[in-house]
Amino acid sequence: MSLSVFQRGCIAFLAAQLTTLLPAAAGNPIRPTGYAAVEGGQFVRYKYKGEDWRYAWRQRAYLSMGTEMAVGDRLKLYGGLSAFMWYNTFPKERNNDNLNFDEKHIDVDLARGEGVYSFGDVTDPMLTIAAGIFPYKYDAPTRNLGEYLFRSGAYPNFILGDFDNAAAQLTGFRINGNWLGAWGNDLLFTTETDIWPHFDWTLSYVTHYNLGGALDLGAGVSLTNLITVDADKTTPDPNKIQARHGDAAGKYVGYVENGDTLYYTFKSTKLMARFAFDPKVWMGSGIFGAEDLKLYGEMAVLGWKNYPRPPGFDTLQQYSFFENRSERMPVMGGFNLPAFGYLDVLAVELEWYGLKGPNSFRDRKEDGFPLPQAPDYWSQVDQKYGTYSASDYVGKDDIKWSVYARKTVTEGFQVTGQVARDHVRHNFDSPIQLDREEALTKPGHWWWALKLAFYY
């Protein structure tokens, strides 16, 4: 599939800007970066639209190019453009039509566009201020599970994840301060660009303290949708939704508290705590690799406030998470097995997440409701297909696991592999095919992936 006119125009525009910028930056250090990879994998047992399936191949390719430019001693500019080739992963039989399911898709995106200004010692700044689009990762050891603070939602609860991408891409502002050589702090003010309600602003604080290089303790809080662009979208009035959506909004209700009628909201307070322990600081590296023997973990509360269950709508238990904070608390732990230098890292991760319902953002993304997807949603849509009910989400989908390995064959060339039952989702290219729920739910569901990457 060729690039669209819009995509080609974006590439041409950015190339023209880069051509203009480089001569102007003469005398300033410019460091190019590049990444190219091909990935193959298979959903061995999985779910799509409330049905169990076997064997779906996943093929991808990646290209990312960027620059890092110093403007004087204190200002650095980062830019990056990425291209991503993918195919649909769901079974063609499910939709009973011929919509070119095997057609190649190419997405072009702005991977990074950020300016960073440093204060204090230019070699070891005590404070930096950044603005733009930037990748963000606060839990360095994690390879798959975790990083909950920015890869999740609270009302409704959901967790995101994908292969070899345990980080978030944020848009907004970041202030970073490092003091005493061990205490790091990030204050982030970011705007929502990926999921409804768009453009609301979130305020987050992430901190960590390193004890002698052996133990790293961290915590964070995120006040999501703190500043709203449209209050009716962030805390929607059911009557207004009913008027806009008609009967499709009939299931949405408010709740009564202290005699007042209130409405469910996307606003939330998310909390995170984590640790990482490396015993090699005390015992010496010896025969072990740099990542071997590291033990780490993270827990989160995806929405501190409890709400009453919607009256009359909880026969399938999908709303119990409103009252029970423990259902909104994912917990993960990881350990890097000894690889003795033969691998860069060999990580085993395990997660417990007691949500009694689908890990899905369907109602939020498609309808603008701060309520979860019903367990039997797909059978309601088409009784010919969906077979899942509440019992499929009570206890059966609480445990996730992942085994991740990476090997640097030579400088600039890596091989990465993973076997997991995690939070991966399907690729799709039209509203007819979409399923916002994770693909692996039951204990027997799992998938694998292998990637060859070149980088500079």
Task: Output the keywords.
single chain; about 450 residues; 16-stranded antiparallel barrel; two-stranded antiparallel ribbon; 20 strands
What report would you give on this structure?
- With 456 residues, this protein is mostly beta strands.
- The protein has one domain.
- The chain is built from 6 helices and 20 strands.
- Strands 1-2-3-4-5-8-9-10-11-14-15-16-17-18-19-20 form a 16-stranded antiparallel β-barrel.
Short description:
The chain is mostly beta strands. 10% of the residues lie in helices and 43% in strands. The chain has one domain.
β-strand amount: 35-45%
Taken from the alpha-carbon principal axes, the silhouette is globular
Structural class by sheet pairing and helices:
mainly beta
N/C terminus separation: 27 Å
Q: Specify the biggest β-sheet.
A: 16 strands, antiparallel, barrel
Number of helices: 6
Give, in spatial order, the strands making up the sheet with the most strands: 1-2-3-4-5-8-9-10-11-14-15-16-17-18-19-20
Low-confidence stretches: 16-25, 243-249
Helical residues, percent: 10-25%
| Beta strand count | 20
Give the radius of gyration: 23 Å
